Amino acid sequence: MSVKIAIIGGTGVYDPQILSEIREEVINTPYGPARVVIGNYRDREIAFMARHGSAHSVPPHLVNYRGNIAALKELGVKSILATAAVGSLNPDMKPGQFIFIDQFLDFTKGRHSTFVEEGVVHLDVTEPYCSRLRNIMISAAGELGLEFHGAGNYVCSEGPRFETAAEVRMFRQLGGDLVGMTSVPEAVLAREKEMCYATIAMVTNFAAGISPNKLTHQEVVDVMAQNAANLRSLIMQAVTRLDTEEDCPCQHFLEGPVSLGSEK
């Protein structure tokens, strides 16, 4: 039986113990091996992948995004719920709140951002995150009484450094609400593999120049830890509501992109 649901845990989310009957697999892909933990939750098999490694040892710019997504596709995954710790550019989006992002601005520089290596394929990313999964999570958050925003514009920076105050001012002027380092190319790669993908972003701090304090990684980890129980409840409530057999346009995107063939 294929594993149809995956959770990608970001900073502060390394523990697959929400699952039972856990087993670990290493899946070899053309982009390198990927480690995944597979377990059971309410009679559903779920794959758990720690984006930065179980010891949080892989920085965001060196994550093997292609290997991770290719491995989940190999398992048969159709729906991915990803978590992300983010800094806020928007005063209305406060630390501890959840944001179900619907758009991104890509400011990454040196990452392998596509599986396409032959020909010219233009993929539609008008809506880069699965609206079906987002609506499921919005409903789950409402049922749990959590503080959340149903949409937000995620700015993806290269990292691993935090952003300068000038960069944050620019991102705000461009319409960014949140800033993080991992959603791109992860969301795009999932779309290329025709998997539903949505991100649960949790605000851990206000970004540089907005926060009155010096930014530290420990601050991010501490806020994630404080809200870990809410995050786990949200993820598992969403998993419970997810119909793994329901069809979705995300799973048919390669039927629609414009292909221009090989350029000379």
Ordered list of secondary-structure elements with their pairings:
Layout: E1 5-9, E2 20-29, E3 32-41, E4 44-50, H1 65-75, E5 79-88, E6 98-99, E7 103-107, E8 120-122, H2 131-144, E9 148-149, E10 153-157, H3 165-173, E11 178-180, H4 183-192, E12 196-206, H5 217-226, H6 228-241, E13 258-261
Parallel strand pairs: 1-4, 1-5, 5-12, 6-9, 7-10, 10-11
Antiparallel strand pairs: 2-3, 3-4, 5-11, 6-12, 8-13
Helix pairs in contact: 1-4, 2-6
Structural notes for this entry:
This protein is of the alpha/beta class. It has a single domain, classed as Nucleoside phosphorylase domain (Rossmann fold), CATH 3.40.50.1580. The chain is 26% helix and 29% strand. The chain is built from 6 helices and 13 strands. The strands form 2 sheets. Strands 1, 2, 3, 4, 5, 6, 7, 9, 10, 11 and 12 form an 11-stranded mixed β-sheet that branches. Strands 8-13 form a two-stranded antiparallel ribbon. β10 (153-157), α3 (165-173) and β11 form a beta-alpha-beta unit. α1 (65-75) runs parallel beside α4 and α2 (131-144) packs across α6. It is globular.
